[in-house]
Write a sequence for this structure.
């Protein structure tokens, strides 16, 4: 069974309340429950964390070294400027997938760039909460192909 660390960054604890027209009506708890169901069918074990603090996210990424097989992360606004999170992902060398609820490429200019994308297996954006399921499936396929 592969273990996946699921990280959500700043303001994602506000899902369901926060700009529902952009981010949908599901809460983070709802999304995590849906992911747990999918994980069962893919034989993945998930660990969920959310933080509004960059250093906390980095600590969890470091802890994943030697304990997890992959990372699924919605880094929130850190996507666009956190070289520290990028370096943390590179440091642990685990396959990681970046998920965004919204299509960051058709929003404000500052959201078009992800400083993390280059250290990811890939990026999923624009499919709402379903993107988390897609991300899990993508990581699962990555594990299968790496066997
Ligand atoms: C987001 C997109 C980011 O630009 C934004 O700062 C978020 C959420 C998304 O899921 O669409 O907090 O990562």
């Amino acid at each position: 069974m592969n273990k996946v660390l699921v990280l959500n960054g700043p303001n994602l604890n506000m899902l369901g309340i926060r700009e529902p027209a952009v981010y949908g009506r599901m809460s983070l708890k709802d999304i995590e429950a849906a992911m747990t169901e999918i994980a069962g069918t893919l034989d993945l074990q998930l660990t969920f964390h959310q933080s509004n603090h960059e250093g906390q996210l980095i600590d969890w990424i470091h802890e994943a070294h030697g304990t997890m097989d992959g990372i699924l992360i919605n880094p929130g606004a850190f996507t666009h400027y956190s070289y520290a999170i990028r370096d943390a992902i590179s440091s642990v060398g685990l396959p990681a997938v970046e998920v965004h609820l919204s299509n960051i490429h058709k929003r404000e200019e500052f959201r078009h760039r992800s400083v993390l994308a280059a250290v990811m297996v890939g990026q999923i954006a624009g499919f709402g909460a379903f993107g988390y399921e897609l991300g899990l499936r993508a990581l699962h396929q990555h594990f299968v192909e790496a066997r």
